[in-house]
Amino acid sequence: MIVDGRRINACLTLAVMHQGAEITTIEGLGQPDNLHPMQAAFIRHDGYQCGYCTPGQICSGVAVLAEIEAGIPSHVTADLTAQTTVTEAEIRERMSGNLCRCGAYSNIVEAMSEVAGLETGRRHA
């Protein structure tokens, strides 16, 4: 989930801890007839299998791209004085705490790369 623009683990927080905060869950990103671009990209790239982690992966993906756009560096950011750019390495590093027991990681990276406007070698119909 996203709280005041930052991604957090919903399982490690209580709602009462965020009274007055802006909270976004998967339901707040889009609806079946009006998907958020990240939700649509996950569908196009099969960024899910069992679906258990999908809401967290999508919310985190949205927040990760916002972090990069805001210039927040990660452990793989090469130049801390330059604007952070979206790369596959940045996506993988920032999403490394989101576990998928089915192993859809490469598809998740492809979906996020599409939303970020990166070209990827593999495309789904």
UniProtKB/TrEMBL annotation:
Report the SUPFAM superfamilies cross-referenced here.
Answer: 2Fe-2S ferredoxin-like, CO dehydrogenase ISP C-domain like
Family annotation (InterPro entries): 2Fe-2S-bd, 2Fe-2S-bd_dom_sf, 2Fe-2S_ferredoxin-like_sf, Aldehyde_Oxdr_Iron-Sulfur, Beta-grasp_dom_sf
Q: Which Pfam families match?
A: Fer2_2
Q: Which gene encodes it?
A: paoA_1
Q: What top-level branch of life does the organism fall under?
A: Bacteria
Q: What is this protein called?
A: Aldehyde oxidoreductase iron-sulfur-binding subunit PaoA
- What PANTHER family does the record point to? ALDEHYDE OXIDOREDUCTASE IRON-SULFUR-BINDING SUBUNIT PAOA, OXIDOREDUCTASE, IRON-SULPHUR BINDING SUBUNIT-RELATED-RELATED
Biological source species: Methylobacterium cerastii
Describe the location of the [2Fe-2S]-binding domain by residue ranges: 25-112
* Gene3D superfamilies documented for this protein: 3.10.20.30, [2Fe-2S]-binding domain
